[in-house]
Amino acid sequence: MRDIILTSSVLIAVTALLRRLLQGKISPRLQYGLWLLAALRLLLPGTLFTVPVSVTGAASGLTAVMQERVPAPLPDNLAPALPLPDQPESAPPQNTAQVRPAGDWLDFVWKVGILVTGCAMALSNLIFYLRLRSRRQPIPLPPGSETGRLPVYLVEDLPSPCLFGLYCPAIYLNSRALDPAHLSYVLTHERTHFRHGDHLWSILRGVCLAVHWYNPLVWLAASLSRRDCELACDDGAIWVLGEGQRLEYGNALVQMIVPSRTSLLRASTSMTAGKRNMKERIALIVQRPRMLKATAILTLLVMCSAVAVTFGAQAAALTENPPEPPPEEEEASQPLARYLAQPASPDYTHFSGLFSLTLPEDMLDSLLLAEDEDGVYFYDAAAYREAPEDSLLLRVYPQAEAWASAYEAEQWTLGRFDTNGSPYVYLLDWNRTAAFSQRAQVLRDAAADSFQLYASADLFSRLVRSFYGDNMPMAAAYLPYLSWDNYRTVYDENEMSGALSALWSFAASGALEWGQYHDLMSSRTDSAIDGAYATAYQDMIWELYHQNPSQFASVLKSPYLTGAERDHILFWFRGAVASHQDWPEALTFSDEVLYQLLGITELNSVG
């Protein structure tokens, strides 16, 4: 939206300035036609082609220079946050609260404005139509009065003749227009409006005003284009009547014009004008403008340049050879990472099937993406070789809703899912540094507008089932979202027993990282985990503790385990201690005693 506001405002300003400088020196019909370019820029989203220089590129460059000269603290949410005391560096990144409040409010206000302006436009035209319909009378026209298929009606108290109607346009006259000295000129004028399609262009003008109601330059463009509409009509009517009737047409027009203004939202032509517009019209009728070839060429060159820098996107400089992905043997050592690759098409779907989004097509060649088990990272290909950490443009990832509301400060919320009683949200974060902010924002807007979430309890059950046999780290990454009830429903009890056995073996391997401890400990159990299954799950908890007590304690006290998840894991830990240490009294230990047993003196919790 910011780019549309900027580019359309520049194009309107150029057109208005050119109109002022060349007033009376170019054809009125050409002058009127130039406003179509501004309408297209207002209504067409995105860019149409690539150019060496663009308005948006220049604005971003100016912003970057200003930020360099006046440095300001910029949040670097894309870099790993410093770990909390006693928290390992592999813990999830910490951020701060609330998501996308300003964007949501601005979007809401914009849509309310569209609704209000659109309703005002519809109501204005409906009232005018009902008024015309209730008072109109067919007119028998004298011989030689040609109006084609346009019906002509008389409306006694109509301020001025007009052309009105979308599906069945008609000419509406007042009693003064029936004067035989004026009638043929008035009909020719309104017939010319019809030939130019001005009853349709007036609707397009109203749509632009409704969508961009907040921009005063759009209202200026609407006012100037309506004035140019009448000038072009005068020029076209004289072309039909012949040069010999120029002065007679002008005299009739002066008699018909009413010195007043018509609402810009009304989709009708009108012989009303302010004093300045009347002088301009009369001057152009009295002396037809002579457009020199040089003037026409200059006008076209200026407008072509304006179109190029406002409809085009500035090309990004890319390195000839994108960075190569790491070798396969390195990939095997980190089974949760999908290494860098160029997007195959604008329509991106995560390999897990959890979500999809659409990328700007003109950015595909300049992007690299890397996936993990439930998110995706987009990098600037040209900058990646020099500084991989600084070239990250955008990431899409899930976060527990409790963490997101407490730590994720400036990310946008894309979607929410709750597949096991622990709600998660998908967040979008982007690079805000001056060097990458423009590209990151274009990518951000495209991803946010097209994001589709497909997370479901069945999907997570299938993901765990498909990976735990040969890639347990990947299966463990989906445990925080897994519903064991759903797993047993989708498969069967034998299959659930096999999954729990694989989890126990994984926990007993002693090779788990902090994040994998977190994944297993944030897994919620429900009514499906009972009997033998409860014993297997409890044994898994004991193995986590037995293999690395300090890491177990670190996860338990971290802020990335919600209060409900901590209570849940303590419940299972009590049973594990009672079973494996022959401490039945562990079942009655207070939380403080268990914390002391684990060496936990202080908790960092979000609730």
Give an account of the 3D structure.
It is a single chain. The protein is α+β, with helices and mostly antiparallel strands. Helices cover 52% and strands 10% of the residues. The protein is built from 24 helices and 15 strands. The protein has helices at 2-21, 28-33, 35-43, 55-69, 101-135, 180-196, 198-211, 216-241, 246-256, 275-286, 293-311, 328-333, 381-384, 401-407, 437-450, 457-467, 472-477, 484-490, 493-508, 514-521, 532-547, 549-557, 563-580, 591-598, and strands at residues 49-51, 137-138, 152-154, 162-164, 170-173, 312-314, 338-341, 347-349, 355-358, 367-371, 376-380, 392-400, 412-417, 424-430, 452-453. The strands form 4 sheets. It has a 6-stranded antiparallel sheet with strand order 7-10-11-12-14-13. It has a 4-stranded mixed sheet with strand order 2-3-5-4, sandwiched between helices. It has a 3-stranded antiparallel sheet with strand order 8-9-15. Strand 10 (367-371) and strand 11 form a beta hairpin. Helix 6 crosses helix 9 and helix 21 packs across helix 22 (549-557). It is elongated and about 115 Å long. Mean pLDDT is 80; it is low at 67-103 and 316-337.
In total, the number of strands is 15
Mean pLDDT: 80
C-alpha Rg, in Å?
35 Å
Structural class: alpha+beta
Strand order of the largest sheet: 7-10-11-12-14-13
Biggest β-sheet description:
6 strands, antiparallel
Task: Give the DSSP E fraction (strand runs of 2 or more residues).
Answer: 5-15%
Tell me the number of helical segments per DSSP (H or I, 4 or more residues long).
24
User: What percent of the residues sit in helical stretches (DSSP H or I)?
Assistant: 40-55%
Low-pLDDT regions: 67-103, 316-337
Approximate shape: elongated
The span between the termini is 38 Å
